[in-house]
């Protein structure tokens, strides 16, 4: 099938990662995947949730939101209570980052990653994970520079991508138009050591078999390896 943007089935959308994107927050990143654009910014709180007090362990968490103009029809702001989708995405981002973080080396402090979607065209949760890792890495590097942490806090890179089946064809990195027409939709999170953090797969209109599952995971694995290269090659902070 011909994709709307003429990509091959296993091809990512154009990826751009800009580090140090915000003037007041050095550990900040703009990530662009096609027309999807997200700002991810890390901040440090010298405390931990109550269940970690006195443990010597730190915490990494995330907040996610879409600005009202990020979608064709204005999206109302979350005021006081986030919806179920937003909660799910926030938890996914946090789990993905904690999977590669040594909480003992981080010490009793919290790193919070704010992920704000500027433009949404599919794959916002996966792009947020990929960008959030770079912001987390820059934040940890700043803690190391100040002598606040020692040793290897981050065990590996982590990135994520979507994959799906549209009109019987397995595709990587779905745009919104493709995602809305997908028979099967998946989000895969993987580390640079090749280990999976999360595999979310849903049959939207037609069940899928093991062969199709394996094909989607293989596509996503190759895509994530490419994204991790992009993370490593992202230019230094301004």
Entry keywords:
single chain, 238 residues, alpha+beta, Ribosomal Protein S5, domain 2, 5-stranded mixed β-sheet, 29% strand, globular
The biggest beta sheet, please? 5 strands, mixed
Question: Share of helix among residues?
Answer: 25-40%
**Highest CATH level, the class:** Alpha Beta
Seen as an oligomer or otherwise, the chain set is single chain
Number of helices: 5
- How much strand content do the residues show? 25-35%
The third-level CATH topology is Ribosomal Protein S5, domain 2
Helix and strand string, N-terminal first? EEEEHHEHEEHEEH
Mean pLDDT: 95
Strand segment count = 9
Task: Kindly report the name of the CATH homologous superfamily.
Answer: GHMP Kinase, N-terminal domain
Strand order within the widest beta sheet = 1-2-3-5-4
The domain tally reads 1
Protein described:
The protein has 238 residues and is α+β, with helices and mostly antiparallel strands. The chain has a single domain, classed as 2-Layer Sandwich (Ribosomal Protein S5, domain 2), CATH 3.30.230.70. The chain is 29% helix and 29% strand. It has five helices and nine strands. The longest helix is centred in the last third of the chain and has 24 residues, at 210-233. The protein starts with 14 loop residues before the first strand and ends in a 5-residue tail after the last helix. The mean pLDDT is 95.
Any chance you could write out the topology, listing elements then pairs?
Elements: E1 15-19, E2 28-33, E3 36-45, E4 59-66, H1 84-98, H2 103-106, E5 110-119, H3 124-145, E6 158-166, E7 169-172, H4 176-180, E8 184-191, E9 196-203, H5 210-233
Parallel strand pairs: 4-5
Antiparallel strand pairs: 1-2, 2-3, 3-5, 6-7, 6-8, 8-9
